[in-house]
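Milestone 3.1: sequence recovery, worked example.
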């Protein structure tokens, strides 16, 4: 029958409208901020960088500045510059890691493409700023968050990532031990 979808939609609207007079549970609108937290376990808003040790975030950050996320980002909102030492040799960490969240569409492609499990999606959504240009450009220091923070917001996913990384390190250690020649005892 033609128009059955419109009739079903209007029935749902009418049910919520008349039900809202009887009980608050029929109200589809969340009265934020009075009603409390609206973040669910599935909320994913903006990316952040993960580091492992609380006392040294820059040294233990998982990002190695491979720039895969920068290349794969559809709106091109990620900007990375690799750090160099005093001799000009490239180090395996970013000196600059910026994300323009005014352009970021939260697609999570950067998270999916990262081979080092260093970039994840945060649940934070209150990002208002008086400065619409610099306030919406997040730098490396603003993006760094600890692995324990990641465990707080997405515990099951974080544990799976930690297990994968531990298995990778164990396999690499076993391979390194197998390829290292043993010295004979005199």
């Amino acid at each position: 029958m033609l128009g059955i979808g419109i009739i079903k939609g209007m029935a749902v609207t009418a049910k919520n409208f008349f039900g809202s007079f009887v009980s608050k549970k029929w109200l589809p609108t969340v009265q934020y901020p009075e009603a409390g937290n609206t973040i669910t376990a599935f909320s994913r808003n903006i990316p952040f960088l993960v580091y492992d040790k609380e006392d040294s975030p820059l040294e233990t950050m998982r990002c190695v500045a491979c720039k895969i996320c920068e290349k794969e980002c559809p709106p091109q909102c990620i900007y990375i510059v690799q750090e160099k030492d005093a001799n000009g040799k490239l180090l395996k960490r970013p000196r600059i890691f910026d994300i323009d969240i005014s352009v970021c569409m939260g697609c999570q492609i950067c998270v999916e493409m990262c081979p080092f499990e260093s970039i994840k999606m945060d649940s934070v959504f209150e990002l208002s700023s008086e400065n619409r240009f610099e306030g919406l450009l997040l730098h490396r220091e603003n993006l760094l968050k600890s692995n324990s923070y990641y465990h707080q917001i997405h515990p099951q996913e974080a544990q799976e990532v930690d297990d994968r990384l531990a298995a990778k390190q164990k396999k690499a250690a076993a391979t390194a031990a197998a390829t290292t020649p043993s010295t004979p005892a005199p």
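The longest strand covers residues 90-100. Residues 46-163 form a domain with the Alpha-Beta Plaits fold (CATH 3.30.70.3270).
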